[in-house]
Amino acid sequence: MDICPKCNKVVLSDYKFCPKCGYSLTGQPAPVQEPGKDESSIGSISFFNVAQELSSSSNLDELLSKISHSVEDILNADRSSVMLLDGSGKNLYFKSASGEDILKKLKVPLGKGIAGWIAQNRKSEIVNDPYNDERFCPDTDKKTGYRTNSIIGVPMIANNNLIGVVEAINKKSGDFTKQDLDTLTGFAGLAAVIINSTLAQTDQKNTFSNMMDFMVMGIEALGTPEPTPKGHSWNMARHISQIGEKLGLPNKTIQKIHRAALLHDIGFLGAENPKLVGLNIDIDLTPENRYRLHPLIGGEMVKGIKMLKELKPIIAAHHRYRDGTGFPENIPTDTITPEIEIISILEYYYMAGSKEKVDPAKFSPQVYKAFSETIT
Ligand SMILES: [Fe+2]
Ligand SMILES: [Fe+2]
User: Fold this and answer.
1) Is residue 177 assigned to a domain?
2) 97 and 235 share one domain
3) pLDDT tens track for 97-120
4) Distance 71 CA to ligand 1 centre (A)
5) What is the C-alpha separation between 80 and 69, in angstroms, rounded?
């Protein structure tokens, strides 16, 4: 736990900067990723740790097993399982399950039991008293001798196709909650992308771009406190090439900024459910705090993913301007590059609602000119 010596307000476990006033809690300047430096912040594997592994592993069983363990850990559940739809499309089978090995030999017909109901209806469900729920089928408990007291399950869907069901069983204390369901939905989406890509034998690059889509969909679905129209991340990404070309940036740099545009507000996803992305944040995440923190949280989220960590300085500074305004305040204005400015000027434009409201004094003349010629 850290308390900001400047404003005494902020208490963070992992951050090096005060999210309220931007003061450096370590005496160091703004965060810049150093190559090869291990900055993982949490011991247990999280949503983004899985994403990180995805870029270096193609072992589906191992990844699903890690997802299962993460689900148990984060939801405080005794057991979990990942069930897939078989070739006939009529049964689920256990692809990964903690507990009894016998489970891996069982098939669950669609429509039977809670998992079968979730698959058939493509709906998430929480059942905190299964023996009093007529959909529950006690056959599995009879075969394993294990008593099911609570179930939470989410369908895995990719490209509108049902892939299977992720379930967690027996909350160790209390009942499963709506927040647990949101968390499990995040993991189910990630698992669906991984499984779908592996089954389709797409290459790593496609898998990664599917994941990017999934993350952007997550940001869009969540909505943000920013007064920006729907589809804001995709809209922003559309302008990147034109502005980048006007500035004479190399293709590789334009591709990097394009990815940064898609993910620039990913911090809102992390602020919504910090545990899901492996962050410990001890302050009350009010809408105002979520807004002020989202660049820093976004930077923290991408830094752990090999293929995204170069985006950290851009995402962390996408509300900071060269005239010293914006936030986080402790990012030095002389570290604000044209790469960052392309994102920040578009963000400013979408938030202001019109080109005329964009203040040229906040941006370097060449970036403002390229922006101004692109947005007509
Ligand atoms: Fe933003
Ligand atoms: Fe934004």
Assistant:
1) yes
2) no
3) 776 666 667 789 999 999 999 999
4) 29
5) 8
